[in-house]
From TrEMBL:
<dbReference type="InterPro" id="IPR015947">
    <property type="entry name" value="PUA-like_sf"/>
</dbReference>
<dbReference type="InterPro" id="IPR052181">
    <property type="entry name" value="5hmC_binding"/>
</dbReference>
<protein>
    <submittedName>
        <fullName>EVE domain-containing protein</fullName>
    </submittedName>
</protein>
<dbReference type="InterPro" id="IPR002740">
    <property type="entry name" value="EVE_domain"/>
</dbReference>
<dbReference type="Pfam" id="PF01878">
    <property type="entry name" value="EVE"/>
</dbReference>
<feature type="domain" description="EVE">
    <location>
        <begin position="2"/>
        <end position="133"/>
    </location>
</feature>
<dbReference type="InterPro" id="IPR047197">
    <property type="entry name" value="THYN1-like_EVE"/>
</dbReference>
Length: 135
C-alpha cells in the first residue's frame, strides 16, 4: 500500500462533499509531476485530504477506488488522468499546516518542500505522524 496527500480548496470540493457523494473522480490536475503521482495510485491506497487556501489543514482520509484513467475534464488526446476516491474516515481532529511545520518529524514532507503541488506521495512514517497528530 502507498500513501498520498491531495489538496483541494474546500469551496471547490471539500471532504464533506466527498462524504456526501460517496465517491468522486479526482479530476482537473494539470501539473505533470502531480499527474505522474496520480498515475501511480492503486486501489486501496490511502490518501490524506488537505483543505488548501483557506483552512490549510488535513481533514480526512480517502481511499483510491479506481486507478488512473483519462480525465474527462481534459481536452481529448492529452496526458491528463484522474483517479476515483471514496471517503475512508474523517479525522477526529484536523491537522493544521502550523502543526505540520512545528513537528520535526515532518520536516521533509512534500507538503512543505513543494507547497504548490496538488498531489504528492507520503512516506509511511509521515502518514503515521499525521494520524498521530489527529488524535
Amino acid at each position: 500500500m502507498n500513501y498520498w496527500l491531495v489538496k483541494s480548496e474546500p469551496a471547490a470540493y471539500s471532504f464533506s462533499d466527498l462524504e456526501r457523494d460517496g465517491q468522486t473522480d479526482w479530476t482537473g490536475v494539470r501539473n505533470h509531476q502531480a499527474r505522474n503521482f496520480l498515475s501511480q495510485m492503486q486501489p486501496g491506497d490511502l490518501v490524506l485530504v488537505y483543505h488548501s487556501v483557506t483552512d490549510k489543514e488535513v481533514v480526512g482520509i480517502a481511499e483510491v477506488a479506481r486507478a488512473a484513467y483519462p480525465d474527462r475534464t481534459a481536452e481529448p488526446n492529452t496526458p491528463w488522468v484522474a483517479v476515483d476516491l471514496r471517503p475512508h474516515q474523517r479525522l477526529p481532529r484536523t491537522v493544521s499546516l502550523a502543526a505540520i511545520k512545528a513537528d520535526e518529524r515532518l520536516r521533509q514532507i512534500s507538503l512543505l518542500r513543494q507547497s504548490r503541488l496538488s498531489v504528492m506521495p507520503l512516506q509511511p512514517a509521515e502518514f503515521d505522524v499525521l494520524l498521530e497528530l489527529a488524535h
